[in-house]
Design brief:
The complex is a heterotrimer of chains A (about 600), B (about 425) and C (about 210).
Chain A (H helix, E strand, L loop, with lengths): L1 E3 L3 E6 L3 H12 L4 E4 L7 H4 L8 H6 L12 E4 L7 E2 L33 H9 L17 H15 L7 E2 L2 E2 L23 H12 L5 E2 L9 E2 L5 E2 L21 H4 L1 H4 L5 E4 L3 E7 L6 E7 L5 E11 L3 H11 L22 E8 L17 E4 L18 E6 L20 H10 L3 E2 L4 E4 L8 E9 L5 E6 L4 H21 L3 E5 L42 E3 L14 H19 L10
Helix pairs in contact in A: 1-12, 5-12, 6-11
Chain B lengths: L25 H16 L2 H5 L13 E4 L2 E4 L16 H10 L14 H4 L4 H11 L12 E2 L9 H9 L13 H11 L5 H4 L17 E3 L2 E3 L14 H10 L9 H9 L6 H12 L17 H19 L17 H4 L4 H9 L1 E2 L11 E2 L8 H15 L8 H13 L3
Antiparallel strand pairs in B: 1-2, 2-3, 4-5, 6-7
Helix pairs in contact in B: 1-5, 3-5, 7-11, 9-11, 12-15, 14-16, 15-16
Chain C lengths: L23 H14 L14 H10 L29 H19 L10 H12 L10 H17 L11 H6 L38
Classes of the chains: A alpha/beta (about 600), B mainly alpha (about 425), C mainly alpha (about 210).
């Protein structure tokens, strides 16, 4: 029996970064907000204090803070001709779970996308001609521009206390920053974090090669900080347990350390943890959401009616919930029609591991933070002429020292056996003198007609609902891009004096066991045409106007940066549209 | 929202204009407003509301006293189980003289020895406010004391010994601000109820006012200022602490966190500053002069230093200075310096949640280390912190830790 | 923020003691295997003395062994390598069957001698054949079993000692990893200077305990 709860103005599905931002903004506008989170509550001192936060086995290897595939997972195949099989244990990406979402265990690499990223198809077509793009590439403009989002990027960076060096303030190029970035209205709220030895060497070599290295923008505090909401963060202590882990000393920007303390004080906000939303309910017309249905840990089913539904779960679960709720036309790759599930993307990551003379180099790899490091952006987006290379896209690359955790990061030179005395000796010799960047080459993945999400015909979740099915493989464009970038990256390590270099190119087929990033994107994309996008430029559903869908599922393709800055900026952008426009006249904000 | 599978309770702000007072004229509305402010300043809700309850002032919260447990009565306007049928005179007698409606003496867990400093009008205003809140039918069995303390007649003697009735009168030699602070501290805010040492019968020792006491498993530190552990705190520091729960030195947690949450954070900046001004004028003992501090031996200090380096410095910093308004400065937080280590041990053993306020909403928490450190290790780090930062606070023995651990395990709060 | 006294998720410490998952024979074999995967040398103990077998024993007895939290609904179909593990066997079952398979294989090919009765060189030879895919076990994929060992043994060598391996932090000491130390602000600027301080476990280090107490 479904029990009906008292109606709310707003129900939010998922209390991660965007759920928290939306909840705060809409509660601040006076609305009565209920957030429903599938996972548990998480708190610094009781869930990951310094006394045991640094447990590599528990958090990194056994995935303590992540969704359990038993609770729900999805299926995967490379090609439409294959049978998809369930992902039984996580590998290529790590779906988050619990209050704070991925914001609890991210590295806090806080980027903005390039202005051209938002008008990608238009820009590339203008510069290289329509024939330059592969036929099956389905990249699109976003419907929103960098200038639209700039104030919202700024808000998020000041919320988080992002540590960084601006490269372009109001059109003025600033020495030491990223000269390729879009103009920002002001400097970062905090100076860059201190850099370890490896990053400093990398920056010097990059400069010698003519590049303009800059510190990675970091959501880990370079000093104590109080954000505009009054919430405070402490200084990062370089513990080296950032991504995959919860921060023990309040020095990483997370929903818990920036926004939830004030959100929880609002009397018109409430949240339920350990409750999984199973569908978005529609009225008889199918054009209006009436709320959501969820199940608590006792197996009890509840209906939460609401005037406005914000879907802010993880990418693939946003798409799955839309498909299960019958919202929007499912994408059909054969007929190239429909919208829900299309333009699904991930990332094209590769790395270069370099081995230096142990007698001369000691990098102390464990003195690390999620985003300390020096990067270059010469090979990102369309910052370089792609004409001669025959591919589009790119990525930033950098010596980002995220950890020296020995299970994960104990590189041995090529040719070393996988076990035995020689392996042991090589681990010992190279631990201090090898560099294995935590990020490496952070390449884009553009969208294709045969890369998409739909519902699996065979495998079900614990409620008997079909799992989402992802069909994804690397295309030649991305593999070419990656080979080019990886070679460029390796040249810098060569210039640093490495005596042996291993280029770990990203190669096809796409492998669901090999970790890249958790940046699954697309599937419920934003755009200007309801025929090719699920959402309008305000993240509002074309089909159900009282539904907004946040998160990277809105990205038409994935540029060469970490997505969180843009995900959050879009959430602020959409919240502004709801507050300033939608609430005054609830309905479709764009006449398509 | 609590940890675990929970359903959050939406707190509904209590409108002062609902209930019987709604029809009152403007003059009464002002009285209700004043009463609400004073009820907060007097921290009525701390005892008369069960934490997290949706029914403020409906009583039932157990109050630990040195003699046993009492439960705070229902003071909503319910006529049968609350105070709805009381006259204003009866209410005034209870609040300011400790005499119940039936003539019985109240136990001094009700801080009438402080509330007596309030004026009759103050108390009438509190009553006016209480009349406007939602009546709740909740009969509370107040007296749970063991014999002989359950004999209220004994309170007659107690009152003679320790109760000096009478309103606060300004000291014309002092500033207006000092007088306001003295009124608040000695009256509604009843600071001494926790911070003044008590006799064996639980009465204040007036000569040692505000020099620290021990209750409900916490050390209420010496809050005298001239020479006490707070000697380096400025008036602004104290005022900020009361208002925000945090300042550059310390963070309020435990009982004081509750006081800040329910009471002092709701005071005006002028009033918290007034209290600070008053406290700054209360002189006490020189630090460490009350006893020759036992210093930890070299081995213990070395072990404590190692633990401090590995577990504490990530927040409190290597030099113990912490982060302003977040992590306490161990040299200036009074709890580090108290003779009795109860609070330090409690905080290390089970952690502590600092208070979140509108002024400082962060509310960072100290993690628990009792699961990680054995008695000797915990004694070592506590001794190290007290020895290095604590202004001559004595060392702690493993045996003290063992006892504190056992006592805390038995506690439910 | 919501908070309750005492930690809600503090870890359990694995203690030395009887085997919890392995039989005595299995344990002896695993101790021999972990000492081949990480052999002792004059500076650093091998897998056995570092507690890797104890670590695996405790892991297999716990949630890892039973594949707790993983997606366990069928149908189980063999897919491509890229589709990830699709075996219905839990890690506990993999070890039980894999160790039995190893025992049978060794005895059949060495005149009735089990793995533990072989010389170190012979043991290495067997493991290399398994690694190369030249050995078949009846019930489980021999190579998959060896892959699990190559994952689990270094985890035992390098994870926090509270999990039963990395005894006395020997794995961390070998490479200079400082463990759970949480504050390196005093060293971030000291470029190319090897961090000198000894490692710390969640269970602490010897220096935490006063010598005379």
């Amino acid at each position: 029996m479904v029990r009906k709860l008292p109606a709310k103005d707003v129900v939010i599905v998922g209390l991660g970064w965007t759920g928290s931002i939306m909840a705060y903004e809409l509660a601040d506008a006076g609305l009565d907000v209920m957030a429903i989170e599938r996972g548990p509550w998480r708190n610094t001192a009781t869930d990951h204090p310094p006394g045991y936060a640094a447990d590599e086995l528990r958090y990194r290897i056994r995935h303590e803070l992540f969704l359990r595939p038993e609770q729900t997972t999805f299926t995967f195949r490379n090609k439409m001709s294959q049978t998809a099989l369930p992902i039984r244990t996580w590998g290529a990406f790590m779906p988050p779970n619990g209050v704070g979402g991925g914001g609890v265990h991210w590295n806090a690499e806080t980027w903005r996308f390039l202005p051209t990223d938002f008008v990608l198809r238009t820009h590339l077509t203008q510069r290289y001609g329509a024939g330059f793009l592969p036929d099956d590439m389905t990249i699109q403009d976003w419907g929103v521009t960098y200038d639209d989002l700039e104030p919202h990027y700024d808000r998020f960076e000041y919320l988080c206390g992002t540590s960084g060096q601006a490269g372009n303030v109001k059109g003025q190029i600033v020495e030491g920053g990223n000269p390729f970035e879009g103009p920002r209205s002001r400097h970062y709220p905090n100076p860059p974090q201190d850099q370890p030895f490896g990053a400093t060497l990398f920056a010097k070599a990059a400069r010698d090669l003519g590049y303009k290295p800059f510190p990675q923008p970091s959501g880990n505090m370079s000093r104590a900080y109080q954000n505009p909401l009054g919430v405070r963060l402490g200084p990062c202590t370089f513990c080296g347990f950032c991504e995959w882990f919860g921060c023990g000393n309040y020095s990483k920007a997370t929903p818990q350390t920036t926004i939830l303390p004030v959100l929880l004080r609002k009397p018109n906000f409430a949240a339920r943890d350990n409750s999984e939303v199973t569908r978005i309910n529609l009225d008889a017309s199918g054009k209006r959401a009436t709320g959501v249905t969820f199940v608590d840990t006792g197996g009890n089913e509840w209906e939460q009616p609401a005037d406005l539904v914000i879907l802010s779960a993880y990418t693939i679960f946003n798409v799955q919930l839309l498909l299960l709720s019958g919202i929007g036309k499912p994408y059909d790759p054969v007929g190239n029609s429909g919208v829900i599930g299309r333009n699904f993307t991930h990332q094209t990551i590769s790395d270069v591991v370099s081995f230096f003379d142990p007698a001369k180099f000691a990098f102390n790899p464990f003195i690390a933070s999620g985003s300390i490091g020096m990067c270059i952006d010469e090979f990102n987006g369309d910052n370089f002429d792609h004409g001669p290379h025959g591919f589009v896209g790119g990525g930033y690359m950098g010596q980002v020292q995220t950890n020296g955790r020995p299970i994960e990061t104990a590189p041995v030179p090529p040719g070393t056996p996988r076990w035995g005395a020689q392996w042991k000796k090589a681990v010992k010799e190279n631990y201090q003198s090898a560099l294995k960047p935590g990020t490496g080459v952070h390449g884009s993945m553009y969208s294709y007609r045969d890369v998409y999400v739909d519902l699996d015909p065979t495998y079900k979740d614990r409620f008997g609902r079909p799992l989402a099915r992802m069909t994804i493989d690397f295309h030649d464009n991305e593999l070419k891009q990656n080979a080019f970038l990886t070679d460029k990256f390796a040249e810098i390590f060569q210039a640093m004096g490495a005596r042996q270099i291993v280029k770990e190119y990203r190669k096809g087929p796409y492998d669901v066991t090999k970790y890249q990033t958790t940046h699954l994107c697309g599937g419920a994309i934003m755009g200007t045409d309801p025929g090719t996008s699920a959402l309008n430029r305000y993240l509002q559903s074309w089909d159900v106007p009282n539904l907004f869908v946040t998160g990277a599922s809105a990205f038409p393709q994935n540029p060469g940066y970490n997505p969180t800055g843009t995900v959050a900026a879009l959430a602020y952008w959409a919240a502004d549209a709801i507050r300033n426009r939608y609430l005054k006249n609830p309905g479709q904000l764009i006449n398509a | 929202m609590r940890k675990g599978p929970t359903i959050a309770v939406v707190l509904i702000a209590l409108g002062a204009s609902t209930g019987p007072g709604a029809s009152a004229d403007l003059q009464d509305f002002a009285a209700v407003e004043r009463g609400r402010y004073l009820a907060n300043a007097a921290d009525c809700g701390s005892c008369h509301t069960i934490p997290g309850s949706e029914h403020p002032f409906s009583g039932g919260r157990p109050i630990e006293t040195p003699f046993g447990v009492l439960a705070a009565p229902n003071i909503t306007p319910d006529r049968e189980t609350g105070i709805g049928s009381w006259t204003n005179n009866e209410f005034d007698a209870a609040v300011r003289r400790g005499i119940s409606r039936n003539g019985a003496r109240l136990y001094p867990a009700m801080p009438f020895p402080y509330y007596t400093r309030m004026s009759r009008e103050d108390v009438a205003d509190i009553r006016a406010y209480l009349n406007t809140i939602a009546p709740v039918h909740n009969a509370v069995q107040v007296n749970r004391l063991p014999f002989p303390f359950n004999l209220r007649a004994a309170m007659i003697v107690w009152d003679r010994l320790y109760f000096t009735p009478g309103e606060f009168h300004d000291d014309v030699s002092k500033s207006k601000e000092w007088n306001r602070g003295a009124y608040l501290a000695q009256g509604p805010a009843h600071c001494g109820a926790c911070h003044t040492p008590k006799t064996v019968l639980g009465g204040d020792k007036p000569s040692e006012a505000l020099r620290g006491y021990m209750l409900q498993g916490w050390t209420a530190p010496d809050i005298t200022s001239g020479q006490g552990p707070l000697r380096n705190w400025s008036v602004d520091d104290i005022a900020e602490y009361l208002k925000a729960g945090h300042n550059k030195n310390a963070a309020a947690a435990g009982l004081m966190g509750e006081v800040v949450d329910l009471s002092t954070s709701k005071m005006t900046d002028q009033d918290t500053r007034a209290i600070a001004t008053y406290l700054k004028g209360v002189t006490g003992m020189a630090p460490g002069s009350s006893a020759t501090a036992d210093k930890a031996d070299k081995d213990v200090t070395a072990a404590g230093g190692a633990i401090f380096q590995d577990l504490c410095s990530a927040c409190h910093q290597q030099d113990g200075k912490g982060v302003a308004n977040m992590f306490p400065n161990l040299s200036e937080a009074a709890t580090t310096s108290t003779q009795d280590p109860a609070t330090v041990l409690r905080v290390i053993l089970q952690g502590a949640q600092s208070v979140a306020t509108d002024r400082e909403p962060t509310g960072p928490a100290m993690p628990a280390f009792g699961w990680q450190l054995d008695d000797a290790q915990l004694a070592a780090v506590a001794s190290y912190v007290r020895g290095r930062f604590g202004k001559n606070a004595p060392a702690v023995s493993a045996d003290q830790v063992r006892k504190a651990r056992a006592a805390l395990t038995a506690r439910t709060d | 923020m919501p908070w309750t006294p005492f930690p809600t998720s503090a870890p359990d410490f694995e203690r030395p003691g009887p085997w919890q998952f392995f039989t005595t024979d299995e344990a002896t074999a695993v101790e021999a295997i972990v000492d081949r995967i990480i052999p002792p040398d004059p500076d650093t103990p091998g897998g056995k003395d570092a507690g890797c077998a104890v670590f695996i024993d405790r892991q297999l007895k716990g949630p890892y062994g039973s594949a707790a939290g993983l997606y366990r609904l069928g149908p189980y179909t063999k897919g491509t390598k890229e589709q990830g593990p699709q075996s219905a066997n839990t890690p506990a079952e993999l070890y039980r069957k894999g160790l039995a398979g190893l025992d049978r294989y060794c005895k059949a090919n060495n005149g009735g001698k089990g793995f533990t009765q072989l010389s170190a060189e012979q043991q290495d030879g067997v493991l290399k054949k398994i690694e190369a895919g030249e050995v078949k076990f009846d019930e489980v994929d021999a190579q998959g079993f060896f892959d699990a060992l190559l994952k689990d043994v270094p985890e035992g060598f390098f994870s926090d000692p509270i999990h039963g391996g990395n005894k006395n932090m020997v794995g961390w000491s070998m490479i200079g990893f400082p463990g759970i130390r949480y504050d390196y602000r005093d060293w971030i600027h000291r470029h190319n200077e090897r961090y000198p301080h000894p490692p710390v476990s969640i269970a602490g280090r010897a220096d935490w305990t006063p010598h005379k107490s």
